Amino acid sequence: MRGATSAKWVAGAVIVAMAATACSTGSNDAGGKGGSITVVLGEPQHRLIGQDTAESEGSEVMNAVFSGLVKYDIKTNEPKLDVAESIESTDSKTWTIKVKDGFTFHNGEKVDAQSFVRAWNWGANQENVAESMPFFAKIEGSEELAPGKDKKPTAKELKGLKVVDEKTFTVTLKEPFSQFKTMLGYNAFFPLPKAFESMDSKKFGEHPIGNGPFQMDGDWEHNKQIKVKRFDKYPAEGRAKLAGVTFKIYDNMDTAYNDLRADNIQIVDKLPISAMATVSQEFGDRYIYKPESAVGYIGLPLETNPEAFGKVEIRQAISMAIDRDTLTKTIFNGTRKPADDFISPIIPGYRKGALGEVGQYNPTKAKELFEKAGGVPGNKIELGYNADGGHKEWIEAVANQLKANLGIEVTAKPYAKFGDMLDDLGAAKYKGAFRMAWSMDYPAAENYLRPVFSKVAIEQGSNYGHYRNDEFEKVMAEADKATDAAEGLKLYQKADDIIIKDLPYIPVFTYMSSAAYSKSVKNVEVDAQGQMDLANVERN
Amino acid sequence: MGRYLIRRLIQAIPVLVGATFLIYLLTFAMPGADPIQLLAGEKKADPLVAAMLREKYHLDDPFLLQYWNYITGVFQGDLGETLTGRKVTDLIGDAFPYTVNLAIFSFVIEAVVGVAAGIMAALRRGKFLDQLVLISTLMVISIPVFVTGFVLQLTLGVQLKNSWGIELFSVSFNENDGLQAYLLPAWVLASTSLAYVARLTRTSLMETMRADYVRTATAKGLPRRRVVVNHALRNALIPIVTFLGADLGALMGGAVITERIFNIHGLGGLLAQSVYLKQGAVVVGGVTLLVLIYLVANLLVDLLYAVLDPRIRYA
Questions:
Q1: Dist CA A275 CA A443 (whole Å)
Q2: In this predicted model, what pLDDT tens digit does every residue of A239-280 receive, in sequence order?
Q3: Which of B37, B38, B44, B264 to mutate to test the interface with A (most CBs of A within 10 A)?
Q4: Pick from A146, A417, A460: which is nearest to B33 by CB?
C-alpha cells in the first residue's frame, strides 16, 4: 500500500494549499493607504551612490534619496538652485559655490561644503571605479587621481577643489566651462556624508544615507523592492507629501502595466509598447505623453567609408530622402516626433526647424543632389541596427525610402546587441550607416554637441563616425568661455549650425516619454529623462 | 543498492566538472559584445572605467587562466562576483527558493491532477469525461505558455478585480500572499506537462488494464478499486515516473517565461538576464545547480523503479 499512502499525503498537501488560498484576500497594497504608494522600477545596475549610478533605474531612486546643488525645472529644464545658495563665476573657470543652511543628511549630519568635496574626490579617484568618473575630468588635478590603467593615483584630493569655510567651496576647472552650473544637477555631483568615509562603499550602496526628501526604509532588497520613507527634517519647501514610496522591481513592463490597471501599483513611467494602442483611452488625462530628451539618428562612418559618405551632398540627399512624418506616424504610432534640430526640443537653445531644407522630405531634390555628387560606390548602402531594441521596423522603413527615392540598393543589417555594433564601428570593420541615439546627461545644448561630435568624443564619447572639424572645436571652446549665459547659448547654436551644415549624423526623430498613473494618486509629473518627481506626488 | 548509489554519485563528479567547463567556454566564446560595454547600455563605456573593470575582473586573462581561477574559487566555496560587484552566491541564493517553490508546486499539480485526469479518462474510455480530458489537454498543449499566462493574468488579476471587485489572484507575485501567490503561476507553468502526464497516464493505464494479470485479478473477484490501484496502476506508473523525473529539471529551467510574466525573481529570469549581459560567473553557477538537480532527479527516478516493480534490481 505504499503507493496509495503517499498519494493520500500529496492530496492532503494540495488541499491544505487550496485552503490557504481561499483564506487570503490577496491584498497587495503593501503599506496601503495613508500616503504610501508603489511605483515601478527595474533592478538598478550599480551601487546606489551618486557617483556610481548613471543609468535610469538607479537614478530614479537616487533622485528620491539625494538632493543636488541644482535641480531642473520640470517645464523649462533650466537649472534652479536646490541645495546651493549661490553658484558664481566671473570667468567660467573658477566657480564659488555656497551651500544653503537647513539641509541635513538622513543620519543628522549637516550638508556642508565638505560633503560635496568628499563625494567628488571619491568619484574622481580611479581606484573606486565609479561609473561617473569621466565627469570629474574637467576639474583641475583630475589626472592625478585618475592617471590611467596600471598607474597609481598620486593624490587623494582634487587640486581644483578648495573648502573656503563650512558653507563655501571653490571649484577650479582646467578650461572655462560656461555650462558648469547646469551640469551640477547630475547624479555624479551629489554629496556624501562623513559616515561614508568609515563605511564600505558596497554597504553604503545597499543603504545610502542621502540628503533628499526621502530616506531609505530598510536595505535595498535586490530584485524585489526598494522602500523609502519621508525625511521629516527636510526643508519645508520641497518636503515630500507622501509618507513613503515602494519601488517595486519588475523585469517585464507588461506585468507592471497590468498591475497599474488593477491599482496594485500607482505609477508606471515607462509604458510597454503593447500598451500604446489603448492607454490614452483607458487612462485619459492620467496618461502623460511629452517630449523626452533623446534624439534618434542615422549615423554615418565618415572616416571608415569616405568613398560613400565623404561628400556632404550625399549626406544631405540621404536626409532629404527620409520621410520623417510618415515614419513617426505609421511606424511609431506618434510616439516619436520628427527631428528638426540636433538639440532636443525640450532643451534651452533648441530652434524649431533649425535643420532647414535638409530636414524636409524632398525626394526630387534628394535624387538630384545624390546624382550630382556621383552617388555611392556600387550603388549600395548598408544600414546597421541592433535587433534587441525594437529598431528593425523603422530601419527597414528608412531602407525602403532610400531605395525608392535615391534608386540605390539598401540592406538593413541587424546586430544582436548594441554593443556588437559599437565593437565593429570602433574597430572600423563596419562601413555602413547605422542607427544611433543620444540622451542627455544634463539639460544643456552643449551636451548634445560635444559628447557626440567633438574630437575627444572619438575616443571617449559617442562620436562613432569620427567626425572632425576644427572650426566646430573653436566655436565650442569659445562658447565654454562665455561668462554670460545667453551669449554662451548663442555660440553653442553657432556650433550647432556647423554640424547642420556638415551633417555628420542625420537626425530622424526625437523620443517621447509615456507614463500613466492610477486614480488613487495626483500631481504626477515626469521630467525630461522620463523620471518621476516623487516629492510632489500626493495620494487622493 | 548501496553500491549502486555510490557508483552513481561518483559518476556525477565528472559530469559536473565537464558541465562547468563547457558552460564557461560557451559564455567566454559567445561572439560579440564586451560585457563591460553591455553594462554601460546605450552609451559608450568610458575607456578608463572599462579598463579598470577589465583589470579588476581579470577579463583580459587567457581563457584557461580565467577558468582555473574560477574553478579554484568554486572549490573554496566562492562562486565569484558579477561585474557590478554582487556575489554570485547571494544572487543565486536569493533567486533559488522562488524557483524551487514554484517548481515543487507545479510538480505537485502536474502529478496529482495529471495522473488523476489520466486515470479517469482511461477508466471511462470513449465516454464524455474521456473526451473532455482529450480535448482540453490538446488545447493546453497547443497554446503557448506565455499566452495562457497573460490571458489568465489579465482576466483573473485585472478584470476580476476591476469589474467584480474580487481579488482572488494578484497580477504579479507578492510574497506576503504566502502559498497563494504561487498558485496561478504554478498552474501556468504546470499546464503543458500536466496535459502530457494526463495523456501518458491514460494510454499507459489502458494498456495495463488489458494485461493478463489484471484480468486474473478481476476474475478472482477482487474489488475494482484494488485491481486498478494495486495491480494496474502500479505498473502503469513506470513511464509516468520517468517523465515526471525528467520534467522536474525541466520545470526548474523552464520557469523563465512564467517567472517573467508573474514577476517572480527566480533562477530562470536571473539566468536569462545573465546570459544576455554575459555575466559568465552567474551563468555557470546557476546552470551547474540545474545540472545537479537533473542528476539527483534522475537518480531518484531510477531508485523509484524498484519500489514500483520489485523485479527491478540494482547491482
A1: 29
A2: 999 999 999 999 889 999 999 999 999 999 988 878 888 899
A3: B44
A4: A417
For A130, nearest residue in chain B (alpha carbons): B49
User: A503 φ, ψ to 5°?
Assistant: 50, 55
**For residue A420, how far is the Cα from the chain centroid?**
21
Tell me which residue has cell 543589417.
A413
Query: Chain B residues with CB inside 8 Å of A4's CB?
Result: 229-230
State whether residue A381 is helix, strand or coil.
strand
Cell triple for B150: 497573460
Phi, psi values for residue A99, rounded to 5°: -100, 140
A422 close to B (CB below 8 A): yes
Higher model confidence: residue A7 or residue A458? A458
β-strand partners of A70: A81
Strand pairing of A168-172 and A161-165? Answer: antiparallel
pLDDT at A478 over 80: yes
pLDDT digits (tens, 9 = 90+) for A334-372: 788 999 999 999 999 999 999 999 999 999 999 999 999
- What is the dihedral sign for C-alpha A480, A482, A484, A487? negative
* E strand or H helix that includes residue B297: helix B280-308
Of the pLDDT bands very low, low, confident and very high (cuts 50, 70, 90), residue A529 is confident
Cβ of A222 within 8 Å of Cβ of B94? The answer is: yes
Q: CA of B163 to nearest chain A CA: how many angstroms apart?
A: 10
Residue A298, H or E segment: strand A287-299
> What's the whole-model pTM score?
0.87
B173-203 pLDDT, tens digit per residue, is: 888 787 888 889 999 999 989 999 999 999 9
- List the single residue in B180, B261, B263 with the smallest CB-CB distance to A21: B180
Show which of residues 458-487 on chain A sit within 8 Å of chain B, judged by CB atoms: 459-462, 464
Position A506 pLDDT exceeds 50: yes
Beta strands in A107-232 (DSSP E): 161-165, 168-172, 214-216, 225-230
Q: Which residues of B touch A3 (CB under 8 A)?
A: 229-230, 233-234, 237, 308
Torsion of CA A400, A401, A404, A409, to 10 degrees: -50
